[in-house]
Write a structure and sequence with these properties.
This protein has 157 residues and is of the alpha+beta class. The chain is 41% helix and 24% strand. The chain is built from three helices and six strands. A three-stranded antiparallel beta sheet has the order 1-2-3. The longest helix has 35 residues. The radius of gyration is 21 Å and the shape is elongated. The two termini are 25 Å apart. The relative contact order is 0.09. The model has no long low-confidence stretch (mean pLDDT 83).
């Protein structure tokens, strides 16, 4: 996946996050304003809601900018890693879940021969942590039977 495709994928995910935050803020402001004025909240669904746009740029090799509405924020590599981690943790608890199969046309950046660490858990499971160049350290826990299946898959390929 080239840089523009990666930025487009990041833009789509962050755009959904922004929409959720903006909707929550708008609700809070409307509720506070209506409560202060004694007026009932305007819940007319025919009134269009203005959604800010998200623009992602890459002005330099080690910087990404995100502009939401008219507010621009610049991210350094360590801040991007933190954002990826936070978004990943949030996404893990959301529904619908990620697809169980690889989606058709899915594009990705793979890491060849990643750095790995393995740790045996007290219940017999194995924790495998692999370092992806874009996602950072990605942990996986495998039960003993899945470790055997994975060994068989890798040696029979």
């Amino acid at each position: 996946m080239n840089l523009h495709e990666q930025l487009g994928a990041l833009e789509m995910g962050v755009d959904q996050l922004i929409q959720a935050v903006v909707a929550t803020q708008a609700e809070t402001v409307a509720t506070a304003t209506d409560a202060a004025s004694g007026q009932p909240a305007d819940t007319d669904p025919s009134v269009p809601q203005i959604q800010p746009t998200l623009e992602v740029g890459r002005p330099t090799r080690d910087e990404i900018t995100m502009t939401i509405g008219n507010q621009m924020v610049s991210f350094r590599p360590d801040q991007i890693s933190k954002l990826i981690e936070e978004l990943s943790n949030a996404r893990a608890s959301m529904t619908p879940e990620q697809p169980m199969g690889v989606p058709p046309g899915w594009q990705f950046v793979s890491t060849k021969n990643p750095v790995m660490a393995v740790q045996k858990q007290s219940n017999g499971d194995r924790l495998l942590v692999m370092r992806h160049t874009g996602h950072g350290w990605v942990p996986f826990t495998f039960s003993p039977d899945v470790v055997i299946q994975m060994y068989m898959m890798l040696t029979n390929a």
